[in-house]
Amino acid sequence: MAIRRTFRGGIHPDDYKDFTSSLSVQDMPAPDRVVLPLRQHLGAPAKAVVQVGQRVAVGQVVGEATGFVSAPVHASIAGEVTAIAKYRHPGGFLAESVVIEARDAAPEGDESPWPPEPFRMPGASHDYGSMDAEQIRSLIRNAGIVGMGGAAFPTAVKLSPPKGKKVELLIINGAECEPFLTCDHRCMLEETDKIVHGVKILMRALGVSSAIIGIEDNKPDAIAVMTKAFAGVLGVTVATCKVKYPQGGEKQLIKALTGREVPPPPGLPLDVGIVVQNVGTAARVAEAVMDGITFYERTITLSGSQIAKPANVRVRLGTMLGDVLEFCGGLKADPAKVIMGGPMMGVSLSDLDVPVVKGTSGFLFFDGLAAAELEAGPCLRCGRCVDICPLRLRPAEIAQFIEAGDLDGAEAMHVRECMECGSCSYICPANRWLVQLFRIAKAKLNERKK
Amino acid sequence: MSEKNDDIQAAPVKEAATTPPAPVKLKVGSSPHLHDKDSISKIMFWVVIALLPGVAVSFWYFGLEAVRAMLISVVACLGFEAASLRLLKTPGSLKDGSALVTGILLGMNLPPTAPWWMIVVGSLVAMVIAKHLFGGLGTNIFNPALVARVFLLVSWPTHMTTWMKPGQMGIVAADELAAVTGATPLGLLKEGRLAEMAASSSDLFFGNVGGSIGEISAIALLLGGIILLVKRVITWEIPVVFIATTFVVTGLAYWIGGPEKYASPVFHVLSGGLILGAFFMATDMVTSPITFWGRVVFAFGCGLLTALIRLFGGYPEGVSFAILLMNASTPLIDHLIKERTFGTVRKAEVAS
Question: What is the ipTM of this complex?
């Protein structure tokens, strides 16, 4: 076995990936209704450009980007816009959303064929070797592609380094270190060619000649497939990473693969000459640049103890969770806790009546036992949180400052540098709320700065 | 989080959804949604298990006297813990097992013939003064069992240094005590009686010597230490650095001063409370540093002080004093040994 790269710290939760890692991605047919929040990415929400009653084609823009750090939203089914209003977002808040309902025929008096041809962006071409960086970036921007790892940061922004910052390396994140999730794993196995093209396109857009693909070694089949696929591609290597959470965190992956340390916020991977993109993002990039396909569907993993049949499913964005469940065979029993994303950093849903969004990597359904709140005890100063903190912070001591109401103390202990991976809360034998306290402290510190 | 949450109230009432609304009440919480299976009570459980071999050996050699002393210590510690939790309202619970561990550790630090009232006073000092008056579980500065041991040692030195010879099975009557007691190997050494302790290396290993209940058998304690390491209750750096430092410093004395004046480093490692202290007391999470390098410095200090007290101090044994002194240094060590955080350079650290 090749060298297994890693970083210092981190934890080893059970990966629970066996439920879905060997299941091929099923294609869910387009649902009859989708709810498309205009805020599915980090940055400014999109602005609706359609009216209620208007007919839309698959892939057509329904919301346009409203700034540099923003992304457009596209229709994921053909039909009629029936509402533009606030709907429950999986993030827990109400978000302005465009609702589209499928229609059987074109409106009366309209002779054009129904359903309309899916929208394809002009300018896309398989001959991306002759495109310049700006052409590629604009296709990616117009396709509404955002990071598929969960944070949903607009991809085109990451590909536009400010003047003076030199990018020399592209890292493709195939670590998928969150337990349960297998959508990136399946993507590497099933969309291999798209990833190869996507990586080449991203390298071209960034003007870099080398790329590393980092994959955790609990996915030996993906490592084998990717190694083979990239064998003839100059400058691209596939690296094996140790199975460890949070190996898929940008900073940890960069550290493991290059030894470089990204400076604390507002430091970015760019500061060490690196851009990181997820494998799923690379596949979407290939679709957009080569075929002009906008971002309107993605693969998600459905897993957890309460789901009847765990699955990997390709769904249209905006599909309601209830419809996805119905397609997959429903729930075995009522869940006590439902999480969008992985169990380490995902958000728990207050309501099952929410749509799939761009940042949805999966839904996990847990029983009461897994959802039980653990009683927190006093800190024993065992130092485990200090040993495992991937950013070398001292969670136990920061928490003491926060509990004492001393925000300055917490800031001096570098609480702002916390990336909220949750490893400290996971490992604490006293079940103390550590990362949760840090989130509160960070929010208060930001509030105070304003 | 610039989301306009304030107009949630004004949001239009959602039209009936085509998807079935959730009839279930969902628990909502901040991530992570997974937790390691370890807990405080599990940690304490494994410490108790790891202490059992050492306890068993002393029961074997010291018989009912040791059983009596251990029982009194455990019961008294649990009693004082319960009383403190109730009266002082400090955090913790009898169920977390920390009082049981302190009770066993205190028992192991006593001579088998310690009078009952002394053990009760020791338990009071450990649980009430050293632990709960400092704020209870997690906030005490000194290891409670060691505070009690040292308190008893300076208060009733005769009782605390009357060492029963191994092999007495029954309860020893007060007037017979003188007949069945003798010096510990380290005591002989301090008195300069090197010849009398010269041939006892295997006895030291298996525990056939005079001493406190829990410190006589090196092999039983090592077995317990291995359990703690395997179950990841403790990390290796404290016991290894502690013992190695004592070995090296006493070895230097042996090498420079000569075997007629100093005992061998192997003798030093196997005798007295070193192994008990290094694996079970210095590793007390609450009173040792929070970082790896902090623990290394802490353990080095423990080893150095132990060796210096044994070689040049007034007491034959120095493990308890060494650990307590280093307990006191723990906040300083934690303050001084700070690792640079991820992605920062050391210069920035110094400047701040």
Answer: 0.87
